[in-house]
Amino acid sequence: MKKACKFKSTVAETLLIPLYMRAKESRRGTEAILCDREAEQLVASIDYDFSRLDGASMSAIGCVVRSHYFDQAVWRFIMARKHPVVVNVGCGLDTRYQRLAQPDRAIFYEMDLPEVIALRRELLPEPDADRCIAGSLLETDWLDDLKSKHPDSNFIFVIEGVLMYFREGQVKELLRNLANRFGGGEVWFDVCGPMLARSKRIKPDSLRGHAARIRSGMYDGYQVEDWEPRLSLIEQGIYQKYFPKRWGAGGRLLGLFPGLSRRFSSMLGYRILR
To answer: How far is CA 9 from CA 12, 15, 16, 38, 210, in A?
Structure first.
């Protein structure tokens, strides 16, 4: 019997979007940007009308490019650091641990709201090297607990498909909390551009008809350095520069104008200075 998914939080329900897009992509076989068999199995086990997402072509490619981009950032970090700890903040039903398959090299944590973690534990096994944390990303107890459990480790935080649903002040608070505790680590996240944040009508195609709202946006990645000087920009990734043939003519054209592309969305990585 399939698992019915009902969420108290409007934002929590959005976790099904990247899950479905990864599953669809994985079914492309040898042409897929990423292979995610677990996502395929999860979608098959959930009672939800995913068909409403089939017309969201830009989100379909955007979600898998984003997952691939962050997979690569985590892989590089694991390969370069001693005692790496990977923390997926707002993890939803992400399967990065399974995709990278590095249980002997790194410890993973999956952090999200209690209702999401309860669903995750029901649908996904919880290996010893990939543990769950139930809580709010604006709380600090779980951060202090991680730091005390792994005092000599190097941390990388990935916040994928999450921060655009929070207000700018809340985003600043989270980044400040990370900078206060995890010097020497990294934090990677994606943002919508200010154009989407300011508009009440324009939404990513996967959110059309959905109650979730884009509440913050950013154009220039160096803005974060002004918010928190202990964060140093590594790079600001433009979606359309990755797998350009998959974006169609309009997407490839947008990729030729990075400044314009950043007004819609981008992917960011920062070093946390000591």
So the answer is: 5, 11, 13, 24, 12
How far lies 236's CA from each of 8, 19, 99, 195, in Å?
A: 33, 24, 23, 17
**Predicted model pTM:** 0.96
Contact 138, 174 (CB under 8 A): yes
Using DSSP bridges, classify how beta strands 154-159 and 84-89 pair: parallel, antiparallel or unpaired.
parallel
How many C-beta atoms lie closer than 10 Å to residue 211's C-beta? 9
Residue 209, pLDDT > 80, answer no
The answer to whether the beta carbons of residues 28 and 39 sit under 8 Å apart is no
Would you tell me the crossing angle of helices 16-26 and 37-45 to the nearest 10 degrees? 120
User: 89 forms bridges with which residues in the sheet?
Assistant: 111
Q: What is the pLDDT of residues 33-62, one digit of tens each?
A: 999 999 999 999 999 999 989 989 999 999
**Residue 132 neighbours by CB under 8 Å, 6+ apart:** 109, 110, 111, 112, 117, 120, 121, 126
Q: What is the pLDDT of residues 74-120, one digit of tens each?
A: 999 999 999 999 999 999 999 999 999 888 899 999 999 999 999 99
Instruction: Round to whole Å and give the CA distance between 89 and 170.
Output: 14
The HSE-up count of residue 201 (CA atoms within 13 Å, CB side) is: 0
